């Protein structure tokens, strides 16, 4: 396993609770839209076994041409050991990246794509939307739906409705309105449904989509292949 050590290039305060850490890109480090990585703090591998408290599975919220690896995360006042250390880190501090992979690349199959997310889960979709805006070929349209009770909606310059690009975005601040809209989206028999959020959020969305006739192969999750049956099995 290759570990890429790098440093923090910039820290962006997206909202009062959400920050994006822009990291310098190590030589030979590559990724694509929709990728995730293991983001680790200094000391995680000092002992005989990795300290899992200092490692998190994170989406990369930027594209390579943006000249920095973006890690976007919510840091509440009461938070984990990992987040407590992270919130006090500064530009120039060292971090590590490893096991970078993409489970949800943008599928260009001439279909409608629905991006369903909760809160900071939108970070996973930011590079996918930018990839689409740069090249709309073989995608009918994109519809992004995000629920965030804080009402501090993320990445609004990117997630905006652009009619001539056939992209529609919607933010809601409660689950009731959100799930009503998911039911409306599920009426598309050929759509592709990308879902990002907590495991509970995934299961709730999948249940609604499946109840409305969406097939498992139409649902894209940021999970490894061996994890998909747990969520997409017909009796899940």
Features:
236 residues; alpha/beta; Elongation Factor Tu (Ef-tu), domain 3; Rossmann fold; 2 domains; six-stranded antiparallel sheet; five-stranded parallel sheet; 5 helices; 11 strands; 20% helix; 31% strand; Riboflavin_synthase-like_b-brl; FAD-bd_FR_type; FAD-binding FR-type domain-containing protein; oxidoreductase activity; FNR_nucleotide-bd
List the helices and strands and how they pair.
Layout: E1 4-13, E2 18-23, E3 35-41, E4 55-59, E5 69-74, H1 81-86, E6 94-102, E7 111-118, H2 122-134, E8 139-147, E9 167-172, H3 175-185, E10 192-196, H4 199-211, E11 219-221, H5 228-232
Parallel strand pairs: 7-8, 7-10, 8-9, 10-11
Antiparallel strand pairs: 1-2, 1-6, 2-5, 3-4, 3-6
Protein name: FAD-binding FR-type domain-containing protein
Domain FAD-binding FR-type: 1-107
GO molecular function, one term: oxidoreductase activity
Short description:
With 236 residues, the protein is an alpha/beta fold.
**In total, how many domains does the architecture comprise?**
2
| CATH structural fold name of the largest domain | Rossmann fold
**Integer average pLDDT:** 94
Report the top-level CATH class of the largest domain.
Alpha Beta
The largest beta-sheet arranges its strands as 4-3-6-1-2-5
Shape category? globular
Structural classification? alpha/beta
Q: Provide the helix percentage.
A: 10-25%
Let me know the number of strands: 11
Q: Specify the number of helices.
A: 5
The fraction of residues assigned to DSSP E strands is 25-35%
CATH H-level superfamily of the largest domain: Nucleotide-binding domain of ferredoxin-NADP reductase (FNR) module
* End-to-end CA span: 33 Å
Return the CATH architecture of the largest domain: 3-Layer(aba) Sandwich
What gyration radius follows from the Cα positions, in whole Å?
18 Å
Uncertain stretches of 5 or more adjacent residues: none
Element order, helices and strands? EEEEEHEEHEEHEHEH
């Amino acid at each position: 396993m290759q570990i890429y050590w790098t440093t923090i290039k910039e820290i962006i305060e997206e909202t009062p609770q959400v920050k994006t850490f822009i990291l310098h890109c190590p030589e030979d480090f590559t990724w694509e839209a929709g990728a995730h990585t293991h983001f680790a703090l200094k000391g995680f591998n000092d002992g005989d076994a990795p300290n899992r408290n200092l490692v998190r599975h994170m989406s990369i919220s930027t594209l390579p041409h943006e000249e920095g690896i973006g890690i976007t995360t919510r840091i509440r006042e009461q938070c984990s050991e990992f987040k407590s250390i992270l919130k006090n880190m500064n530009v120039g501090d060292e971090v590590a990246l490893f096991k970078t992979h993409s489970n949800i690349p943008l599928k260009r199959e001439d279909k409608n794509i629905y991006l369903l997310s909760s809160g900071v889960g939108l970070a996973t979709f930011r590079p996918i939307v930018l990839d689409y805006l740069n090249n709309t070929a073989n995608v009918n349209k994109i519809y992004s739906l995000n629920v965030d009770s804080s009402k501090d909606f993320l990445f609004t310059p990117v997630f905006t409705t652009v009619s001539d690009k056939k992209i529609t975005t919607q933010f809601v601040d409660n689950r009731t309105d959100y799930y009503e809209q998911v039911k409306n989206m599920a009426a598309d028999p050929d759509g592709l449904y990308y879902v990002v959020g907590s495991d509970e959020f995934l299961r709730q969305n999948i249940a609604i989509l499946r109840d409305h006739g969406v097939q498992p192969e139409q649902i894209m999750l940021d999970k490894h292949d061996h994890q998909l049956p747990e969520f997409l099995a017909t009796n899940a």
